[in-house]
Request: fold
Amino acid sequence: MTSIPRLGLGTWQMGDYRSQRDDEIAALRTGLDLGFPMIDTAELYGTGIAETLVGEAIAGRRDAVYLVSKVLPQNASRAGVVAACERSLRRLRTDRLDLYLLHWAGDHPIAETVAGFDRLVESGKIARWGVSNFDVHELDEMAGVAGGAKCASNQVYYNLAHRGVERRVAPWCRARGVVVQAYTPLDQGRLATSSAVKRVAARHGVSASAVAFAWSARDAGASSVAKSSRPDRVRELAAALTLTLTDDDLRELDAAFPRPTRDGPLETV
Ligand SMILES: NC(=O)c1ccc[n+]([C@@H]2O[C@H](COP(=O)([O-])OP(=O)(O)OC[C@H]3O[C@@H](n4cnc5c(N)ncnc54)[C@H](OP(=O)(O)O)[C@@H]3O)[C@@H](O)[C@H]2O)c1
Reply:
């Protein structure tokens, strides 16, 4: 797979409790069975255990998954990024990532991180690289370093209740072909209780979380990752794969969750 898929499953807060391990693996496998083409993870999650769980969930079906992981800023020196990726690949039991992101901007110069990413692309260990939680000033700095224009994606906090990226970050990315990938599209489950989202969901015969998920990747070329450790909820989320929101739906959701009218700093979870 070369282009970044529209919808995928996340793994934050997986790997934290051993007692949940079987459910977490089952949730990811259910997602793949239902047609989710992408899994998002990070060396941070469960301090590596989430990647190990993903490795188990995708065993025997690596080619059917677009695999995303992230390097921590403190590991993102030129050599550090290569070493961190190799550790992630071992935990994931694969020889390559489809997309590798800098989790957030840190102290290592972005030029060093990009040089590390370039080495990983050259050696075939990653297909593409991107960033996460980058505000416009960080994107500008990245775009100014050698190879910075090859950034494929910026993964950011984006959902109906948190639309700040629509003001400056998303237009910056769109103008340069950088895919905006939403994280926390369910606002950690809170959007499932919204009456406006529930009304739209009832019209389509799907769950409110499926509506929130589909909304977060409604634009052409957009992408989003949502998480559940429960196979039943992953089944509900899978309705987003085929859900098309109508103009009336979008108007109703806009009225309940208006776009911000002022610029502000990028929000993170
Ligand atoms: N780059 C970054 O800095 C960053 C930051 C945050 C997240 N992410 C990525 O984005 C993914 C998604 O974000 P997220 O996990 O923060 O939030 P989310 O997908 O918005 O919501 C996940 C939470 O919602 C709950 N949930 C799922 N379905 C639900 C439903 N139908 N009703 C009520 N609650 C429901 C889940 O609980 P159960 O598991 O118990 O169902 C989980 O606690 C993460 O897993 C991670 O891969 C990246």
